[in-house]
Amino acid sequence: MFDKKDTSRGRPAQTPGSSGADRDSRPATPGRSGSTNAAIIGRSIKIDGTLSGDEDLRVEGQVSGTIRLPNHCLTIGKEGRIKADAYAKSMLIDGEVSGDLCSSENIRIRATAKIRGNVLAARVSLEEGAHFKGSIEMDPKSIDRALGKRQTQAVASDGGRSEPGKPAAKLANVEPAPPKSGAAQQTAGDKSLKAESTH
Amino acid sequence: MSRRAGALSTDKDVKRTVNVPLFRSLMDSLAEDRRWVILDLGKARPRTIDLLSRFRCRVDVADLEDVVVASLDQRDESATDPVESLQAMPQPERIDVTLTWDYLNYLSQPQITGLMTLIAKRSRPGAFAHALIGYSRSVMARRPGLLAPLDEGRLIDLSTGTPDRPATRYSTEDLDRCSPGFTIERIRLLTSGMQEYLFRLRPGGNSSG
């Protein structure tokens, strides 16, 4: 279910149902984070590199680099800190973000959020008390252009490997990760979440 | 947006509202079908984002509140100057409209000059800047940025404490002198003890940028 390529420092990231110390960082409210079945990057986990996947993700730890979940929900929990550009179908931000956020559907910025960066989404909601410094794109034409460009680039950067009719799993304006060696790739069912080091 | 602007829940809310005709005329002009770049010097507020989401725009949120208060109280000598803070913020597109809210009241005249000069350099020819300046009261709230739009023509005062900071009460002459590049296009006296200002960038007013 969770593929890692020697990038995390500390314990491996966990999914709900797995044993470990991050049980209390599981999504508490169904629907809030998009899914109670979201994979979780626990509080003690630090990841440098590119995260991409095909399931919902909740970050309570630290991620630097890039996060790409074009068909799923990304939640940055209250304990989560990302120094990354992120692209997801939808986002819920409770924690700290330094980087640009792009969503094809909506971004919810909650009162506890601290964001420094730019936000681009079809719909943006912000709660009183949230700290935000940066720009919010609200021009539908610019949003469509940016999202369309990303989709097109994503297909191109996917090298034609994407199945027809399915959105590409990777975004374009991201440096491709260098080839890895010796890193096992695991999948469970039809879900996968990859952490690729850029270092 | 999750909450629509314009809802007044109590009579107390009604008393805290103020009609802002120049703000309304500014919002009316945003209805034109073109892209606008809006600089908001204050915090990102749900009501502001809600209102501006009706227009084709990009909103750059400078969030100067803490920097302005720290500078004013001189609590921290290493505190970033508001102008430096805005300078550090990337501005890839020229600004069409700047919302200063009541922030100019909380800046010294050299700071206003620095801020307005920087805004002029980053603005498109003919750009607007909107400001609310206290003129009648001798005291003002501890913190700026406690005004939020209810709709295109009304603001609500979100402050809760008793105003206790000495008011700067800048005159029109002060503001004109401190706003190189801009002309004061219109002024309105408001019932709240504030004056509403609409500045417009003069032709060539951003030439030094």
Task: Characterise this structure.
The complex is a heterodimer of chains A (199) and B (209). By secondary structure, chain A is mainly beta. A six-stranded parallel beta barrel of chain A has the order 7-8-10-12-11-9. The longest helix of chain A is centred in the C-terminal third of the chain and has 18 residues, at 140-157. Chain A is built from one helix and 13 strands, in the order E-E-E-E-E-E-E-E-E-E-E-E-H-E. The relative contact order of chain A is 0.18. Chain B has 209 residues and is α/β, with parallel strands linked by helices. The longest helix of chain B is centred in the middle third of the chain and has 14 residues, at 109-122. Chain A binds chain B through residues 108-109, 123-128, 130-142, and chain B through 1-2, 35, 43-46, 49, 52-53, 55-63, 89. Strand 12 of chain A pairs antiparallel with strand 3 of chain B, so a sheet runs across the interface.
